[in-house]
Specification:
The protein is an alpha+beta fold. 27% of the residues lie in helices and 22% in strands. α4 packs across α7 and α6 crosses α7 (189-208). It starts with a helix and ends in a 6-residue tail after the last strand. It binds a DNA duplex through residues 1-3, 6, 32, 59, 74-78, 106-112, 123-124, 147-149, 153, 156, 158, 165-168, 212, 214-217, 234-235, 254-257.
DNA sequence: AATGGGACCTGCGCGC
DNA sequence: TGCGCGCAGGTCCCAT
């Protein structure tokens, strides 16, 4: 589900709705999600904490607590959060002081939740590349140069750039007119600059529209985003290009399905 | 050092 | 109706 725009949407909504509130209780229905510490210490460490603020780094959501600890949530493929009534299928439910619940939902149980004192030293954050929306054009082009892997896989590599996933990588490449299987080092300066601009554009567009609800993703009020209606190629296997109206192509790159237009993308 | 494939999970839609 | 298969928005681990 959640790439940068979806996680950013969640962060903004939660900032408005739960910052300043205190955690009254914690119910762990699926222990597999709690990566550290053990479930009992996790619950004990969380109870009574006040939520100071919410941050995002890449696709990870970070709750800053007044105890000095951080609740780090990674939704992976199919996680989402619902604020409000307690949800039956929640794998983790956090009761807030005002009687509302923050429910962690996850169809595939691949998500990860941690309570740590220092999240920046976690391997994921220590090796994470620059934020997609903070990376300037020149730095983007410099990091791109000399990389032999195909451009789409590079965009998906979180150590290269943080926050891009399979939806927005395909969308940005379509908008920039670049084939996903091109070697990164083959991009001309103009192409790299265009890709940088289109990437920023599509991420901002997606944030404005509260993310793409392609499958299970919902924003915290359990409503769908609206970006899915604006996607140009993602999930359009066997359909036509929105620009030239000819059939789109589909390939597997880095184990992930990839749609592109063989005419509009060079 | 960088790259590609498999593993981790569950559920849906499809063809037979 | 039922079953097997392919596929799904991410990341880590391992072999090469």
């Amino acid at each position: 589900m959640p790439e940068l725009p979806e996680v950013e949407t969640i962060r903004r909504e939660l900032t408005e709705q739960i910052s300043g509130k205190t955690i009254a209780g914690v119910c762990v229905a699926d222990q597999r999600l709690i990566k550290e510490p053990d479930a009992a210490s996790f619950k004990k460490g969380l109870r009574g904490s006040r939520i100071r603020s919410l941050a995002r780094r890449g696709k990870a959501l970070i709750f800053e607590l007044d105890t000095g600890k951080f609740l780090v949530v990674h939704l992976r493929i199919a996680g989402w959060l619902i604020l409000g009534r307690r949800q039956k299928k929640a794998r983790l439910a956090i009761a807030l002081s005002d009687g509302t619940w923050l429910n962690y939902m996850d169809q595939r149980a691949l998500g990860e939740v941690r309570l740590v004192a220092d999240y920046l030293s976690l391997p994921f954050f220590a090796t994470l590349g620059p934020e997609a929306l903070c990376l300037g054009r020149e730095e983007f082009c410099r990091r791109l140069s000399g990389r032999k892997t195909c451009i789409k896989n590079l965009l998906l590599n979180q150590k290269f750039i943080a926050g891009i996933g399979n939806i927005y990588a395909q969308e940005a490449l379509f908008l920039a007119g670049i084939r996903p299987q091109r070697q990164a080092l083959s991009l001309k300066a103009r192409e790299a600059a265009s890709l940088h601009a289109k990437l920023r554009g599509v991420l901002k567009e997606a944030i404005r529209h509260k993310g793409s609800s392609v499958d299970v993703y919902r924003s915290t009020d359990n409503r769908k985003g609206s970006m899915q209606a604006r996607l140009r190629v993602y999930g359009k296997k066997n359909q036509d290009c929105p620009v030239c109206r000819k059939p789109l192509s589909w390939v597997v790159l880095g184990g992930r399905g990839t749609c592109y237009c063989p005419r509009c993308q060079i």
